[in-house]
Specification:
binds S-adenosylmethionine; Rossmann fold; seven-stranded mixed sheet; 5 helices; alpha/beta
Length: about 190
């Protein structure tokens, strides 16, 4: 599983469209903190970034990457995103998922379809009107293709009056490439 630079850039651009300084946002898979750092850069000053990961080494790497931040609230938690509903995040303007395993660590410790979909349920319940969630899903590691399939099924079940989703991959993207799901909540239900 490789981090895909162009799709990552695209995910950041799509999230940038909907967030502003002062917003509250979530990185549901903190990893080495690239997406967390991006979110901090966009919601400061005055915003809040929640970031979750099940591995302590991910939290430590992210803490190192961020350094000291004084103008933004940053809540790094070593916990599964499937437990998001236990956190008092309040409404979210945006959320990012970058599925799979932590680069440079045990490849057997990956996100899983059931817990990913539980976390997506919690994000759906917290996302503000006009908010957006991106999900980068990798298909090259064991279980990855099934997880991408279940994320697609989860998206298809969203009520279309209030939700819009699409795959942001450029045309001609090979089957084996990562998939970038973009899930947006309407400003108002149609
Ligand atoms: C591809 S990495 C994330 C990369 C990260 N977004 C970045 O910018 O560096 C996927 C991460 O998901 C984490 N993960 C796996 N299961 C999880 C769960 N249930 N809840 C939260 N994080 C989980 C892994 O430990 C791994 O660090």
């Amino acid at each position: 599983m490789r981090r895909s630079p162009s799709l990552t850039t695209l995910a950041h651009a799509l999230i940038t469209e909907v967030i502003a300084p002062g917003d509250t946002v979530l990185d549901a898979t903190m990893g080495n903190g690239h997406d967390t750092a991006f979110l901090v850069s966009r919601v400061r000053p005055g915003g809040t970034v929640w970031a979750l990961d099940i591995q302590a080494q991910a939290v430590a790497a992210t803490r190192r990457r961020l350094g000291l931040i004084h103008d933004c609230r940053v809540e790094l938690r070593c916990m599964g995103h499937e437990n998001l509903s236990t956190l008092d995040t309040g409404p979210l303007r945006a959320a990012m998922f970058n599925l799979g395993y932590l680069p440079g660590a045990d490849h057997g410790t990956t996100t899983r379809p059931a817990t990913t979909c539980t976390a997506l349920d919690a994000v759906r319940d917290r996302l503000l009107p006009g908010g957006r969630c991106t999900v980068m899903a990798y298909t090259g590691h064991p279980g990855g293709a099934e997880e991408a399939r279940q994320v697609a099924a989860w998206c298809q079940a969203l009520p279309s009056a209030e939700w819009d989703w699409r795959l942001a991959n450029p045309p001609g993207t090979p089957e084996t490439a990562p998939r970038l799901f973009v899930i947006s909540r309407a400003e108002r239900a149609a």
